[in-house]
Model the fold of this input.
Amino acid sequence: MFHGLTRAAAQDYAAENIRITTAPRRHRHPMLDTNRGHGDQMTAFIPLRRLGLPAEVARDHLFMLSDAASYMTGARVRSMAAF
Done:
């Protein structure tokens, strides 16, 4: 659902040199620490068997905001160790 919206917005704003990307993510959060069973269910399908740390996810976001990603728009970047 969001990917279609991302692509449409990227196309609408490309002429104004505005880049649109999304980065759905799953990372460690204090709310998950209180409900350990839920965190275990989430990591069962992640090859590294752990959630990303906030700093790891932030690096992906910083990349998308940088000039290194200047040719990237309409992308859905998955910030997680999964397929």
